[in-house]
Amino acid sequence: MALTLSISAFLTAIGIFALRVSDMSLDTIRVLFVFRGRRGLAWLLGFFQSLLFVIAITTVLSNLDNVLSVVGYAAGFATGNVVGMTIENRLAIGHIHMTVISSISGPRVVETLRSNGYAVTEISGRGLHGMVTVMHIDVLRKKVHDVETIVLENDPEAFITAEEVRPLRRGFWRS
Fold this sequence. Notes:
Elements: H1 7-35, H2 39-62, H3 67-91, E1 95-102, H4 106-115, E2 120-127, E3 130-140, H5 144-154, E4 159-165
Antiparallel strand pairs: 1-3, 1-4, 2-3
C-alpha cells in the first residue's frame, strides 16, 4: 500500500468516506427499527445500507494501492456511527417509560402532568425516610424533556428514571 497523493486518490477516498457515512448511518437507524419491530422500514433501510456497503468495499478493494481509500473507509465507518446516532436522536422515534419518585410533592406532580395531557399511574410507597409517590408515565421520546421539566418544576428533588418500551396493547396512550 502506497501513499498516492493525486486528485483521483483524494476523490476516491472522499467517495468511499461518503458511502460509508451513509451506509453506517442507515445501519444504525435500521437496527433501531428492527428492535422496534418495524419490519418494512428495516427491510428498506437494510436494502440500501447493504447496497452502499457493497459499492464502498468494492471500491476499496479495487484501490488497495491507495492508502487514502482505506483511511476513507475507516473514517466513514466511525463517522457514520455518530451521524446515525445523531439522526436517530433527532427523530426520537419510540416510547419511553418514565418512573418518578417524589417524597414531597407527588400529588402536585401527578396533577400537573395530567393537566398537561399525560397519562400517569400513581402508587403510594414507602421509601427510606417515609411515604413517597411513585409515578409511571409512558410518553413519546420527543416528550421526555417536557415531562422532566414539569416534574422538576414541581419537585426539584424527584428521582427520575427512563427506559425504552414497546407498547403492546390497551390502556391510555397519548401518542
